């Protein structure tokens, strides 16, 4: 198959555009409206949700893109025919950063950059209008365009550079071809616009475009050369176009008719160097800026000023490729982000890349300092060196809302702004790390924070900047910066601040001891922490003491005042801190430390008092967890002893396609095999059983690579290619009469066989030939009483199937609902009758008999957002589902909603509800997961368990598994998130025996529950006595509900006096 993907490259500086609307012609004559984003090095087509689109050259239509073997290729899903998220298409599929940088370097090497325009004096910029052979003349007048270049009152490029350069630079623009009237005139090329676009069909004999990027850039450069030669004779000899007399034209801009489009390639806003030798009045054309004229979003004063600062030599401050890491500078510099009317570049950029600020004074001593606004040409910048890292330093400036440009900085407040600079870097294009980074509230290595929160002043109460403030002065690796600004003043004509050169950093380094010795701080423990203070400065600190306070009254400090004494320069001291943690305490606990003392500088003793806010986490995390994968875990973890050493392992898969095996401490095991790469995303949960009877548990996993894998501790046993996307959970059962187990699994591709049952060697048990798409796998049980399992599953075709072990669809099936079955069904063996429970997207919960009849049908007023699960509590069977509105619904086997056991958690419910007895108090506990990242534990009456809910930073993405993983008699709760595997350690003895405590009920993922009740113990108190007789009498006389399983002593389906007699005889016999 042949593929076409839009890839463009270029040379020096990039213009990153987002969400440019484009319209694409389809083979059937229709139009596909979508977007393009990127820069001249690489841009891509995408839909409104940023799913990448590429063209399949076999049929000419556009498809959602996927990656196969690191190549971007069309998926099987044509754009706008499906929801790409539902079928698991990855968002924003792009080439790798390494590919991007390599392709950029190839083109940069072809153009020898020939110097920058001077930053002082007068530059006469030559602007040339260009249109193509198939285009009419520019509609707007020459003055319309000149206004953005030359308006003397602003906003314009001329006015902007006069202001920001402190009147040191004048940028005039002369437009060509010359025209006497105020209409317009352009150079018209001999070729149509398509000549400068890629040919989308290499086999076409009528394509006017180019076949590869090299040819495209050659055509583009020849276009510019021809345009220059066309107007060269019109440029007067006395017009100074080489103001620094280096033989090169200072700057040329090309204003090309049109706007960026899907096939733009060369015709994308950019700055580069002309490849061909071309001259005007003996001066060689070299650097140029290319702009598109017909887009009000991209032909602006802001874009012109940004691109011209490149001409002077300034680099971009935005990331060319990495749009995941936080933005470095944002709206505080025109070289990162600006509106139609730009703000100024920062003081540092003026100092580093122009001659407008010639000195960068370094503050070396403690004291009071003052800054003028950036608009003032004097005293407008300071540098403070980090005492911790000699390669990084801080730059201070004062930004004041004034004029027509500086009013466009973020927010509405004047104040001090602080940047971090890394020596040796040029710009932020390849960052992070970045040459320039602005500190702002909430900004971290992972978070953008609030750019309006970058200013400091007394009026807003932001008067300090150090390692303990928000923002804090972290370095590029996240470590402490080690500086301290205090008493930042009001924002008037100037702004003042103080510097303190003693840098002390307190830290809680480790847990010295805790009650259960797991190294974590748990609720109810006494813990001893190591509190250290590091002196990062070159000054000795004297008589240092620490006063510790915690606002949480449930945390008691035994030694709140600690004397450290002298802390020498570049050294640290440690003391222990003892805390008693209350049993209800959980989460991040804030701690305030006031350090007091003194230091000597320049023969003066200076008092030191500094507040620091630290924190520590009180957690239920098992030691070694969370286990960070940096990607989503959709699979419900399973626990098994893979090597029969009486130590359990945890098995799960992740979104990157890896199967992980960990021990109870979160450490990798069997590392010669795991993590195992399946080559595609893993959505379905692993199933575990000894399939081939070799004595060891086998792991069965499906992957979107279209393979099913069977592995054990020693490695791969089988990879089975299904030729369909596998996203559901496999189930292990007995589907024939041999001694080995077999595997049922389902596909999720259109027009494919999507149902498989195979032997451990990969051979088919029987052919099913069903193409319906199955999202969540199967429930399995023996319906026809031949000791061989049958399968139940729902589909996207609104159907629920029961298929016998011979491959035949059971009578009465498929059952048809009014919407899709996308939740896992289950099977209940209830008094020897097998009942299918299935939730549909039509908001119905169906109970279906083995012959396809509806036993009951419960309708809800919100979508069912979990798979159904089963609770057998005291011989009473209940079905539980969660709804998207936060409701937990308990349904009895007659289809009645049990209101006393139904409640709302206040957040949408996801995945599947599981059960246990967390503290062996005889009361059932429910594990419930929310779409807000919450893990909830409720008892059956809707009361929250102690220390719950636990709200996680990342969304919960898998069902929860409860198990005593480390054999210490208490339970652990395992669940996947969008970032890691979580493992919560419940600090009391508990049990999952006879509970639905894992997704689909067991390790085989059978979704099968057999009711086992204690006959005659009607009151479920563990004793057969007269109270059981009274319960049956009340049922017979007054129809008071009773435990029918235990009351029907002879299993005849009738509760009557015969059952009373049986209980009386049992009591008398005892």
Structure, explained:
9% of the residues lie in helices and 33% in strands. The protein has 9 helices and 64 strands. Strands 1, 2, 3, 4, 5, 6 and 7 form a 7-stranded antiparallel beta sheet that branches. Strands 8, 9, 10, 11, 12 and 15 form a 6-stranded mixed beta sheet that branches. The protein has a 5-stranded mixed beta sheet with strand order 16-18-19-20-21, with no helix packed on it. Helix 7 (1026-1038) runs antiparallel to helix 9. The longest helix has 19 residues, at 213-231. The termini are far apart. 47% of the residues are buried.
Radius of gyration: 36 Å
Report how far the terminal alpha carbons are from each other.
Answer: 79 Å
Strand portion? 25-35%
Question: Which whole number gives the mean pLDDT?
Answer: 90
| Main sheet makeup | 7 strands, antiparallel
Question: Which regions contain 5 or more consecutive residues with pLDDT less than 50?
Answer: 1-14
What is the number of E strands? Answer: 64
Structural class: mainly beta
State the helical fraction.
Answer: under 10%
Count of helical segments?
9
Q: What is the 3D shape? A: globular
